[in-house]
Amino acid sequence: MSEQHRARIAQDNPATTRVNQPGREEAVVRAGEHPIEHERPEDWGWHGRAGKWGQVAGWLGVLSLLSYVWGNHEGRMEDLWLFGLAAALVVLLLWDLRRKRTAWRP
Question: Of 14, 30, 42, 93, which has the highest C-beta tally within 10 A?
Fold first, then answer.
């Protein structure tokens, strides 16, 4: 760390230090703490599953898309989009159901 960099650290906040982390960007660390070496993606919620309620919301979405077919529109192009989007959502929901049933569990 250069002297100019150290001076900037003290200027930013005297209660923090900056440390170099291999393979990551520079970290700002509070006084008396140590930098986090590894963060698991699960800690941030990136690998969470919607579960049963995600399936329920998905099927309600399919029903709501199909309910738009009955309305005051005259063209049938809208119907094609509604059926296409509903079919794509059904495929994703069925794929998710199958993936849950055949998932390897430790």
Answer: 93
Tell me the pTM. 0.54
CB 58 within 8 A of CB 68: no
Question: How many residues make up the chain in this entry?
Answer: 106
Residue 49 pLDDT greater than 60, yes or no: yes
Give the containing element (helix H, strand E) for 29. Answer: strand 27-30
Give the residue carrying structure tokens 């650290």.
9
Give pLDDT, residue 51: 78
**DSSP strands (E only) in the chain:** 16-19, 27-30
Element (H, E) at 19: strand 16-19
Bridge partners, residue 3, by sequence: none
Inform me whether the pLDDT recorded for 45 exceeds 90. no
